[in-house]
Design brief:
By secondary structure, this protein is mainly alpha-helical. Helix 9 packs antiparallel against helix 17. The two termini are 19 Å apart.
């Protein structure tokens, strides 16, 4: 019959609303930062600053627990094990449970939205079918059953349920591959944290943080030479100026140690500590590179849990083999020392990561990175207050000022460049959307003309049974 032949054309003239956006536009929408009010924006900027200050206290707290307690020094591996044990339930409480709740609410909201879109689409199809039937039958409302078939709904996900499931062997291989990748990346993070703790045991906390400040520059170099990405602007002048500033700091420490006669400010242990801090920084750069390479295989939560599991499964037997089975220091800690230990495991090691992640998702990584210099400020202040390690040489302060100023200017420049690129990309996306809208309007006009022409060919009581009207006979 003539009516059944024209059904595909009628369906083609009414595409589903979800197909209006291109793939590029959908990806840009997902990557875009959320719209925030001034109060919320200022809140998350403050949270980014506090998170950076919080992480700057990590070498201060670990050095205090290893060198300044009222009893024998805490072994480094045992300290790393206890910090991870404390951080384990904190990760469940402050990260995993909220993540599961947010995922459940998001899934529920998506299902409700899909149901609403399905209802809207079906209503539109009914209206279209009624209009077609009314026009074809000169007022007799006859709806073709195929147009009301819910199986033709593009939003219906019943077809997805019928997709073939991978064999058990393939699923096991995929799961093992994900676990292996997460374990490797998590193991690098665990080794980075361990070398950082060892460095804080041997060198002053603010010297360890000084080396750690080179992290963004090392990551940029790794992206340039390993991942073959474009080099950030002013990278090499910034690197040279930062090295000069760090050298000035070390010269100031050496002058201070000679003036006071104390070897703690600059000694062989200090050199070993700086070497370990450099190793920790290189491991951090390797971690960020692997994050980019493996982003399609593992999630951030999988890496976070792999880090905790590797740290416990690796550091616990190593501590027993290297440092022995004497854990009596756990029972000798004072309430203040327990407070510092819990603060390190919960506030820095767990909440610090959560705050960095949350603020980055809301205000962007370039802006969060601008405040990285706050870590060095926090390490200096924490060393003065908690450890009584006061830099007295003016040369040291000049070096600190040079490093903080140069890195802050470099990261601020990267934030400005990123914001400029984002504005250009947004303008290009708007232009593409406008062009696509014009094309859609032209296509819709053509489809409407074709639809009107198709109505003439529909069999109805007004025709002679051959698909042509009687007056044209």
């Amino acid at each position: 019959m003539g009516s059944t032949k024209q059904q595909p054309e009628a369906e083609a003239s009414n595409p589903a609303p979800d197909k209006a956006l291109t793939v590029t536009q959908q990806l840009q929408a997902k990557a875009a930062l959320p719209e925030l009010s001034r109060v919320n924006y200022a809140f998350w900027v403050v949270m980014a600053v506090l998170a950076q200050l919080n992480w700057g206290l990590y070498p201060v707290c670990t050095r205090y627990l290893q060198t300044s307690t009222n009893h024998k020094p805490i072994p480094t591996l045992q300290l790393a094990v206890v910090i991870n044990i404390i951080a384990y339930p904190a990760l469940v409480i402050f990260y995993t449970i909220p993540s599961r709740i947010r995922a459940h609410l998001a899934k529920r909201k998506q299902q409700q939205q899909q149901q609403w879109q399905q209802q809207q689409w079906q209503q539109q199809q009914c209206i279209t079918a009624l209009d077609m039937a009314s026009s074809a039958s000169c007022g007799a409302l006859e709806v073709p059953p195929a147009l009301l078939n819910p199986d033709q709904d593009p939003n219906d996900n019943t077809a997805a349920k019928d997709e073939p499931v991978l064999p058990l062997k393939e699923r096991l291989k995929a799961g093992a591959r994900v676990a292996a990748v997460a374990t490797i990346v998590g193991g690098i993070v665990a080794l980075q944290a361990l070398t950082n703790i060892y460095a804080a045991r041997l060198a002053l906390a603010y010297l360890v943080q000084l080396v750690f400040m080179f992290g963004p520059l090392v990551v940029a170099l790794a992206n340039t030479y390993v991942l073959k990405q474009p080099s950030p602007p002013k990278l090499y002048p910034t690197l040279a100026a930062a090295i000069i500033g760090a050298a000035v700091v070390l010269i100031g420490q050496w002058l201070q140690s000679r003036a006071t006669g104390a070897a703690g400010g600059f000694s062989l242990d200090t050199l070993w500590g700086l070497l370990l801090a450099l190793t920790s920084t290189l491991l951090l750069a390797a971690y960020f590179v692997l994050l980019q390479v493996t982003r399609r295989f593992v999630t951030g939560e999988q890496i976070l849990w792999a880090n905790r599991n590797v740290a416990l499964l690796l550091f616990t037997p190593l501590s027993l083999l290297i440092e022995g089975t004497d854990w009596s220091w756990v029972f000798l800690l004072t309430p203040a020392e327990w407070g510092i230990l819990v603060y390190t495991g919960v506030s820095i090691y767990t909440l610090g990561n959560i705050f960095i992640q949350s603020s980055t998702r809301r205000v962007g990584s370039p802006l969060v990175s601008v405040f990285l210099s706050m870590r060095l400020v926090a390490s200096i202040l924490g060393s003065i207050v908690l450890l009584h390690d006061v830099p007295t040489s003016p040369v040291t302060w000049v070096g600190f000022g040079l490093v903080i100023g140069v890195l802050s200017a470099f990261l601020a420049l990267q934030a400005f460049v990123a914001r400029k690129k984002a504005a250009a990309a947004e303008a290009a996306a708007e232009a593409a959307a406008a062009a696509a809208s014009k094309d859609d309007d032209a296509e819709c006009a053509a489809d409407n003309i074709a639809g009107k022409q198709a109505v003439v060919d529909v069999e109805s009581p007004c025709s002679n049974g051959t698909g042509k009207h009687a007056d044209n006979k």
